[in-house]
Write a structure and sequence with these properties.
18 helices, about 425 residues, eight-stranded mixed sheet, 2 domains, globular, two-stranded antiparallel ribbon, N-(1-d-carboxylethyl)-l-norvaline Dehydrogenase, domain 2
Length: about 425
């Protein structure tokens, strides 16, 4: 063998090799070709196939729930996954602004039914094809189903998406369990349950058990922007990594990017406490304290949120992402934030009753402030901003007194 000649490469000198390879491939194709079914028409073959009945679901996974579509781990291409190409039936429970926005976002690639609690409101949605109460100016497609019957909405759904205010989560989950038990559940509620201080996942686990296939959809998202197709990024969090892996490509859309997280506690704490901090930010802005004060409040508020999340078993890095910092920044600075508007009105001297009546929407930070103060006390977590908001809302402290109390605190390490 001469210098520079590679072992095993001598076949390129054999001029007959290409012809032999071509013949070999042709032979492979002939042997792979299925034998013709002579004497049977296409219709006959189809009828015979129908008679065999449905194929068993080889991909069934108990953690995904009985209503889940089969998992196709390696068959979905990345592009199809990014477009949310797996069409499923989704029941969106809650016809407020956020529920309507999510119904619109998922309506394109999926079959969506929107359920509303009030029959009169549902009749308005059907007649006007617009949610003029909560999301005016956004048209509802004619083929988006709207119903006041939870049985009709949920009975055939592959996924139940609960978008009621937190106060309605428990009752809605109970109703869904009656209609179709075992169906995968995602909620988009934020806050702590009044009276118990429970996080949403704790409410769900009390009703469905700890092994229920479930997760939360949370992050920085104003309903009006999502409904109008403006780019948004949110988080799907669940303790079950398989649940997230399965539903992430289903919910992910080109203009509604969904990121995965397995820190359910951290994601929910971030979503709940940002509303309390937004009230504080509104008070600061309303009193004219400027951008420096707002930046300090957001930063120190994030530190408080992270301390409580870690005390409850969450991961601090979760609060650096969409469910924490992202949601906090948006809610503390955006003019569409209901909780920030509560703070602005408090700074003007309005009473809470008047503010909530004029708002016309639920501001989850109001009941959450009381519960988070109690929760922090039980776990020994220092949360001066949340405590000040609670005193301002529920214990008669004025905005000026709350600010004076915070500014009088002793200096300390960051």
């Amino acid at each position: 063998m001469g210098q520079g000649t590679r072992p095993g490469r001598r076949h390129h000198l054999d001029r007959g090799a290409p012809a032999r390879r071509q013949a070999h491939r042709a032979g492979d194709r002939r042997t792979r070709r299925r034998p013709a079914q002579r004497g049977r028409s296409s219709a006959d073959r189809l009828r015979g196939r129908e008679g065999r009945g449905p194929r068993p679901d080889r991909h069934a996974d108990r953690r995904l729930g009985t209503g889940a579509p089969p998992r196709r781990r390696h068959r979905l291409r990345a592009r199809h996954r990014s477009l949310g190409a797996v069409g499923v039936q989704i029941a969106v429970l809650g016809a407020g602004a956020w529920g309507t926005a999510l119904a619109l976002a998922f309506h394109g690639p999926h079959r969506v039914t929107l359920w509303g609690y009030e029959a009169e409101h549902v009749a308005e949605l059907r007649a006007q094809r617009e949610n003029r109460r909560y999301l005016p100016g956004v048209a509802l497609p004619e083929d988006l189903e709207v119903t006041a019957s939870i049985d009709e909405a949920a009975a055939e759904a592959d996924l139940h998406l609960v978008v009621t205010p937190l106060i309605g989560l428990r009752a809605t989950v109970r109703a869904l369990q009656r209609v179709r038990p075992g169906t995968p559940l995602v909620w988009a509620c934020k806050g702590l349950e009044a009276g118990s201080g429970r996080l949403p996942h704790e409410i769900v686990e009390e009703e469905l058990g700890q092994d229920a296939p479930c997760g939360v959809l949370t992050g920085p998202s104003f309903a009006a922007e999502v409904a109008r197709g403006q780019p948004t990024a949110i988080t799907l969090a669940s303790r079950d990594a398989a649940f997230v892996e399965h539903w992430l490509p289903v919910l992910h859309q080109p203009l509604l990017r969904v990121y995965a997280n397995t820190d359910l506690v951290g994601a929910e704490i971030g979503g709940a406490l940002k509303n309390v901090m937004a009230i504080a930010a509104g008070v600061s802005d309303g009193m004219g304290f400027g951008l420096n004060a707002r930046a300090a409040l957001i930063t120190r508020g994030l530190a408080e949120i992270a301390r409580l999340a870690v005390a409850l078993g969450g991961r601090p890095e979760t609060l650096m992402g969409l469910a924490g910092m992202g949601d906090l920044i948006l809610t503390c600075t955006g003019d569409l934030s209901r909780n920030r508007r509560v703070g602005l009105a408090l700074a003007q001297g309005k009473t809470l009753d008047v503010i909530l009546r004029e708002l016309g929407h639920v501001a989850e930070g109001v009941p959450t402030a009381r519960e988070v103060a109690a929760l922090a006390a039980r776990h020994g977590v220092e949360m001066p901003l949340c405590e000040a908001v609670d005193a301002l809302l529920h214990r008669g402290l004025s905005a000026a007194e709350a600010v004076d109390r915070l500014l009088a605190r002793d200096p300390k390490h960051e």
